[in-house]
Amino acid sequence: MSRPGPIGSGRFAPRLPRSGRDRLGRRGTINGVTLQDSPFLRACQRLPVSHTPVWFMRQAGRSLPEYRRVRADVPMLEACARPDMIVEITMQPVRRYEVDAAIYFSDIVVPLKAIGVDLDIKSGVGPVVAEPIRDLDAIKRLRDLEPDDIPFVTEAVGELVGELADRPLIGFAGGPFTLASYLIEGGPSKNHEHTKAMMYGEPDVWAELMQRLSAITLEFLRVQVAAGASAVQLFDSWVGALSPEDYRAGVLPYTKWIFAKLGELNVPRIHFGVGTGELLGLLGEAGADVVGVDWRVPLDRAAQRVQAGTALQGNLDPATLFAPWEVVAERTRDVLSRARAAEGHIFNLGHGVLPTTDPDKLARLTDFVHQETAR
Amino acid sequence: MSRPGPIGSGRFAPRLPRSGRDRLGRRGTINGVTLQDSPFLRACQRLPVSHTPVWFMRQAGRSLPEYRRVRADVPMLEACARPDMIVEITMQPVRRYEVDAAIYFSDIVVPLKAIGVDLDIKSGVGPVVAEPIRDLDAIKRLRDLEPDDIPFVTEAVGELVGELADRPLIGFAGGPFTLASYLIEGGPSKNHEHTKAMMYGEPDVWAELMQRLSAITLEFLRVQVAAGASAVQLFDSWVGALSPEDYRAGVLPYTKWIFAKLGELNVPRIHFGVGTGELLGLLGEAGADVVGVDWRVPLDRAAQRVQAGTALQGNLDPATLFAPWEVVAERTRDVLSRARAAEGHIFNLGHGVLPTTDPDKLARLTDFVHQETAR
Predict the structure, then answer these.
(1) For residue B95, how many other CB atoms are within 10 A of its CB?
(2) What is the per-residue pLDDT across A311-345, written as a single tens digit (0 to 9) for each?
(3) B239 CA to chain A: closest CA distance, Å?
(4) Residue of B189, B191, B321, B361 for testing the chain A interface, max A β-carbons within 10 Å
(5) Which domains does chain A have, with CATH numbers?
(6) Which amino acid positions bind substrate, per UniProt (chains A, B) (predicted)?
(7) Predicted ipTM > 0.85
C-alpha cells in the first residue's frame, strides 16, 4: 500500500495510503489533500513543507471565551471524560485559528483517575491526590489502564478525526515523572522533594512506580492512536526539575520504553518539558522524533544539543503576546530564522498559552508564520 | 598596607590588613586567624584553601526551630527591620553549623519598603505590592535609597561582624529583574507576563525602572559593605525566566553597572539565579567573581560556560537532603569531584534550604564537605 515519491517517502508514511481509509477507518484524502500531506506531519518527519506548521500548547483552554463558557458549569475531570466536551473544546481553537494541528483535550491525571486513583482537580490549585502514594504497597495497588477504562477517549478521538479531516490530531499524555510527582507529593509541587527522595533513595521502589506509570501512559496514548490520532506528544512537564544525571538514571529508561513501544504505532512522537535546556539531548535520545523547546534556549542552540534526525518544536516566549504586535512579529521572525538550524521545525510557543492571552493575537500569529514561511 | 605572600596576594586582599582593624573598624585578626585568611574569601578569589568552604542559601530560615520560634509573633518585614532580629536570625545557623560564612538576613523587597513602596509579605504568598507599578509616572515616584532609610542595616551588620569575628558576613540583595517583577506584577508571578511585556514592548520605560532599581540595589549592598560585610551576593532569583538574548538586552547592562560599582568596594561579588543554565556565561560577564549554579547544571559543565577568572558556587539539589545519608554523601562527593573543573569552589545547595529540611543533616553535610576536602 505504500507509495514511492515525495508522499510516502517519510518514515511514518507507509501506514496511511494516499486515499481511501486505512485499517483504522481513517480518511486518507479530504478535498484532494491527504492527511499525510499535512505540513505538520511532514515537518515531524523532517520533510519539505509548503509552510512551517503552527499549533499552540494549551490552544484549547482558558484563553478562549468559548472555552470558559462551556466549562462554566462543568468540572475539569468531568469535561475530560465527556466525549461531547472533549470534541467541542478540542475543536474550538481549530475554528478560530488556522493552526496546522489539533491537540486532544485532556489533563495529565485523566489516566490515573481512570484506574481509580482518588484525585480531583481543584480550581486555582491543580490536581490533588487524596492519599499520596509513597510506599511499595500503595504503588502495587496502581493497576493497569485498559481501553475499557477510557471509552470516552475512543469515542471523542473518532469523532474528532472525522471533523478535523485533513488536519492532524495530536494525542496527549503526561510523562511518568510528572505523574509520579503528583502521586507522591499529593498535588502540584515546586520542589518535588518527596519524589526526588524516592528516586534518589529508594531506586527499586521508584522503578516499580515508573514501570507502572509508563505502562499507563503508553496505553493512554495507544488508545488515542488506535482511534485515529496522527501523532502524540508526551508532556513530562516537570522533568526540568532534574539534573541530566538524574534524568538519565531515573526517567530516561522509562521514557525510552514508552517511545519504543509507540514506535510500533508508526506515528510521530513529540516530547516536551519546560526548563529542559540541559536535557534536550536526552529527550531526543529517549526516542522522540520531535523535541519541544521552551523559550529559554534559542532554537539554533537547541539544534546543536539534539542528535541528527530530530525535528524541533517551539519556541516563542508566551509572554511575548502581551507586547505590541511589532514586537511579536520581530521575535517570531527571530524564532523562524534560528529554526533554520533544525532539520524540521514546528512553530509553537515555548510553553502553554497563558490564560489572559488575546486570542486575536494568536490568530494573527498563526497567519504571520504561514505567510513568512510560505514556499 | 598590603602584604606579599599567599595572604594578601588575592585580588581583594589590600583592603584588610593582616591584623588590627581596617578603616571601617573591622577586625583583621581573631585568634591568630585573619578574616581574609578565611576559606570562603580565599575561594572567592580562586586562591588555595585549607578546605572547601560551605554555606547554604536560606541557612537562616524556616528549617530551623529556633527561627520559627523567634518569628512566631514577628511579621517578616518587621523582623527584617529590627537589628536584634536580624542579628539573632543571621547567627542561628552559624551556631548550629560549621558554615564558613553567614548571610545577612533580609528579604528582597526590604529596600523597596524602605523607600516607601506600599507592600507587605503575606504568609504563604510572598511579597504583595498594593499598587503595581506599570507606567513611567509610577516609576518616577520610586526615589533613591539613602543610608538613613536603613539604619537597622548598619546597626545589625556592625554587631554581626563583631560576633562573627573571623567568619565572613555575606551582604544580601535581590537583583533588579526580580524586584521589577514584584513591582510590575504586584506579587510573585509564574510567568512574569506584564514584566516581559514592558521589557519587550516599552524599552525606554523598562530602562528607567531598571536604572532606579539598580541604584537602590547598589545602595542596599553598599551600606552592608560599609558596615563590615566581607562579600555580597546578588540574588536575581527569577532571571532564569529570560532567554539569553533578553537577559543580554534587558538585564545585563544594569547588573554590569551594579557589579562595576561594587568593584570599587573591593569585596567579592557572587551572582545567583535559579534555572540560569543558559545564562551562566552572562552572569559572569556581568562582573561577578563567583557565579552560583543551581543543581540542574553539573559544575564541570558550568565551568565551561563561565569565562576564565570566575569561581563557582553550588550545587547539591536541596531535595537530596530528604534521601538517606548515604545518598547525600555520594551526591556531595559527585559535586566536589565535578567542582575540580572550576577555578574556585564554594560548596552550597543549588537553591535555598527547603523549609522541611532536617537541620542535623545540614550540620553533617557541612562537616562532611570539610572532611572530604581537607588539605
Answers:
(1) 9
(2) 999 999 999 999 999 999 999 999 999 999 999 99
(3) 11
(4) B191
(5) 35-43+54-293 (3.20.20.210)
(6) 58-62, 107, 182, 237, 351
(7) yes
